[in-house]
Fold each of these.
Amino acid sequence: MNELSQEESEPPLSMDLSSIDIPLETETKIQLFKKHDILHSDFNIINPKADEFREKFFPQATERQWNNWRWQIQNSYTNFKKLSEILDITHIDNFDFLIKSRKLPLRITPYYASLLYGKPADYALTKSVIPNRLELVISPGEENDPLHEDSMCPVGNLVHRYPDRTLLLSTGFCSVYCRYCTRSHMVLKDKKHYGIKAWEKSIDYIRNNTSIRDVIVSGGDPLTMPDKHIEFLLSSLRAIPHVEIIRLGTKIPMVLPQRITNKLVKMLKKYHPFYMSIHVTHPDEITPEVTEACQRIADAGIPMGSQTVLLKGVNDTVDTMKALVHKLLKIRVRPYYLYQCDPIPGSSHFRTPVTKGLEIIQGLRGFTSGYAIPHYVIDTPGGGGKIPLLPEYFQGRDGNNIVLKNFEGKSFKYYDPI
Ligand code: SF4
């Protein structure tokens, strides 16, 4: 197997513009971070396992470098050769072919890799980010853009599906690529921060549509961008009078918690009401680093909700999901959505039957607090939007009563005259 070169497999790293005043440059430049950018950080938590990993595989890196998010991006695992130093992936034959055919890049931060190190090949988090030849199996119903978001883009990189809210896609770059990514058609196509020209078109569209009161900045992962880029977007949106709420969708706190610097949260909290939707997969992601990152976000008054994709063999048991939602509440993240896995090409090995999701919700409701229970939804193929699914608590009518089943399976009547 040949090692894939960075150029072949990887998105360009955006130029760091933190020393340049707004307005930003109009084009994204391909440039690695400069040495002085990766020397310092105000993040200083390393759990013992991650520190052991750092000493073993990155002995030249200081703790400060390890805790620097740019260092983490710069030193990420992006090819087979480097990955095989920490994981036994010899069972993945023809790795290069797999990456090229599937086109979704491989990228794992050293921090996240430390969670996978020493675990079996079928470890939940490993399955979620390491390529698998089953990705080459295309099943009925799968499509590149199952939510038909491309057809709902009035301008490039802006999805307007619901009347009062819109999704602004800021970048095609992520610090870790999930193998089941709904937007893999985008991240594999663009692989970069879109830049101010593209954002200005989106911002103009939002400015000219007074029905939009809620904007979700997503991607890719917007928190992979330098602070000044993020601030450009947030300040432009906050300057639009009818935009009441700004939300940001990200997986960064789980895969690159070092990105949540004090400087970043200080900037984010200027743009309240500002919410964060955090993509979370498994309870093992909740480490001391993640706890610190979420504490910083919560202390800045930013409400956090989780988004979890239900994945076969990864998080599809009541016990795993219960552990996850409990850990999330402890770090002040409200479990928000549990998604049925979207039918992107090569994802059937990740999809559970819908009855599995209902079983999980049934195993949570009544057995833990309501705050811990996410909405189980299918984002319907074809662009129908999110549709919630509930176990059958409503059993029907009996004269002037409705009949309800509780979490223990017992039936009760509620007087509700016709
Ligand atoms: S972080 Fe989100 S956008 Fe990026 S690969 Fe994962 S699911 Fe896709």
Amino acid sequence: MLGHTEESRPLEAVTIQGTDEGASQVVVVLGGHPDEDTSWAGFRLLQYLATTTGGLAAHTVHVFLDSDPDGAALNAERGAESLRRYYEPMNRGGYHRPAVAEQPAMHLPLTAREDIPAGADMKATLALKQFLDDVLDGDGQPPILFDLHRCGIGKMYAITTEAQPPLERHFALAAAQAGLPLARESWALGDHLVSEWAPGVWKPAPAEVCTGDARMGNPQLYAKHRCPRARTVIVEVPQFTASGPLPLSGPHMARQLRNVDAALRLCARTLDDLTLTPHGRAYLSREHMLQHLASEEDRREWASGPFPLQTMLRQTSELTSHALCTRNLPSRNMSPEWTLHGRVVRFAQAVTGARPVAPAAAAHAVLATIAVALRGEQGLREVSR
Ligand SMILES: [Zn+2]
């Protein structure tokens, strides 16, 4: 137990002692983005370690169970079996991806703590920092950190801060073993990446691009800052796969983005103060994104991929949730935001053919990635048994 959040939820970590004291230590961070389900993969990993000897189980593995329990609580009641259920707005427990300013895992200090802006010291950030420091400052072999994420509608990829030959050589095999497609084009992912190490493996942009502030980083950038000899891997496993390239021109996608943006802004003007709810603040923090994405799509012959659709879905969902929280409507169907959201869900489903990734496949993708990063092809054989 590492403390409690602002809303009194526990912040917890689990350590599974390895059988080989000389083996490098492994750090796994779950739930950095509370809208992305990584808990299943975390528990599958713990179950594997608890029932196996040798191989991965030779390493001591430290798992931070949830980086944002308060954000996760706002996602607790939605499902993941369809885009409609995944992005479902509700006055409690619907889809929620907090504004970056409210994401604890994005505020780890890359500078002296007192230089970080006030308000950035969320309790979950402090607990995560303490947890990481305990491992990163230890003696012995430098640790390897895995930060688990789900990249919405798309393909599997990884982000590493340094060359990692075993992972680079076998990452595509790990994705294949989990039955997931491998991402090949970084510009379609909506992430800040600078160069490709190997198929599906990229190097991250510096903090001022990733978090918008050179003084604050995610667990990956923080681990590298605190312990330069550490290795780090962000694992991105899709929540849904698309049936193929989008059957949509760039200008067509741009028009959709601008239409939805205009409709959202119109709705937003009729609503009570958007800063009153986490949903309203999340919407506001991304209000500039749809126009920005539209100008990028305008320059493409074909739409880049599902990321602009996901951004629309996040925005229509968050604004609808804000409306449901602040307005007393006899039925949610009477909300114009809800109608707009429903239209975007149907459009996104039609053009992507999105199908959910089974939780077991997503969990195996993570286990296989950790296995190849630590033990190369042999690791892959071990976890496939
Ligand atoms: Zn994420």
